[in-house]
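During the no-cost extension, the postdoctoral fellow (Dr. R.K.) reprocessed legacy sequence entries with the updated structure-token encoder. One reprocessed record is reproduced below for audit purposes.
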Amino acid sequence: MRQSDRLPALLEQRPMPVHGKQILLIDPVRRFEVELMLRGLGLEVRSVASVPAALDLAGREDFDMALVDVGLAADGAEGIVARLRAGTAVPSILVLAAEDSVRRAIRTLDHGADDYLVRPLDRAEVMARLGRILEWQHADDRAVLFQRELSRKYLVGNLVSRSEGMRRVRDQILQVAAARSNVLILGESGVGKELVAKAIHYNSARRQAPFIAINCSAIPVSLIESELFGHERGAFTGAVGRQKGKFELAEGGTIFLDEVGDMDLRTQAKLLRVLEEREFMRVGGGREVRVDVRVLAATNSVLEDLIRKGRLREDLYFRLKVITIRVPPLRERQEDIPELARTLLEQIRRDNGLRPRRLTAGAVRALRRYFWPGNVRELKNVLESTAITREGEVIRATDLPAAVLGEERPGTPGSRPRAGATMREMERELIRRTLARHDGNRTHAARALRIGVRTLQRKIKWYDIRVAAVRGRRPAVARSLPGAS
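Re-encoded structure tokens follow.
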């Protein structure tokens, strides 16, 4: 069922406060057609055909929202939005775009537009989108500011993408953001799969609705169904009242299922029904709950292997991988490392209240030479540990951990893998190093690696790592934070 077919039911559940709102419509071609639809929704509409006329009118009258055609002027929709933001007091701007102009509409979000609509316009969807934006206008000011800050943070233009691989990821995000299809995000641990998921969400028309992430491998099998779909009172021991699951909490927005391959088969069947029918039952419930949620999933496992082993439903796999995005490991995007390191250092400085930090050319060269088995997560941890323990503002190569410089003794848990090592060999070495750093404690090691304990146990078995052999063999690098692996 298409989302637009279900919107009337959603609107009945949640009335949209659009009646009587003042709308400024700027459309040189089809404004009378759009104006007729808007008036039919109970809105007060003033329409003009040019930006100067809009600026003049907005200077004399108050409007709750402006609707702008994406192909209006020579300076582009971005320029129109910027001029409206700078020259008027209109609180919200929504862009109208043809199907072949969606990417242009998405770019206007970087310049102050709040949302966009794709022609041909659907009456129910228009009402829902306008209503949602108008609700945000009346929300708590701090919540609005926080939401706008999130949207700015995850704009596609903010992704470090000098490398060909990341430019491809950036382009894919722009292509899929406007769609409603499920997306499967692939990549090694630590490459930034959740960042890609957030970029898709915050560059989409769902950007003002919730984004909820859940790590499927970090939740016990006995609890994951309730966590995702909620439960009714008395459904199990301790269920003292009804509780909504993540899918209900993400209504209208996006849910991100990380390590989806670690989900048990029973929960997989329930997830498949949500993807196919957009409905489910809470644990212990007898009534179907309908949801409008986009599903993004991620994994660092080879899902085809899980299918062959009977641990992943093949029909679920094909439902999830409507669109696939592969995020490259950091070793394949070395040209991104200088800018990425500077961006991460500035973020670390703000988060920890530090003075500005600067990397020397030698430090940047050292970062580019390292193979980064832990990817961007490891880079951030190394930079954070160095920035916090370093007194001065300048970070030199000699300030970096010995593991990054390749100075640890060969054969120790923190040593660099041999030249030409495969990805599997590097992942095995990363797990060994992290286990050694945590004296063999699997729970702590899994937390440092940002994966579930079950995932770690599976990889330990897969790579035939003897945990007893690495206990007590802590790396000599005291500066590295737990998880900088």
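The longest strand covers residues 294-299. The mean pLDDT is 81. The remaining legacy entries will be reprocessed before the final report is submitted.
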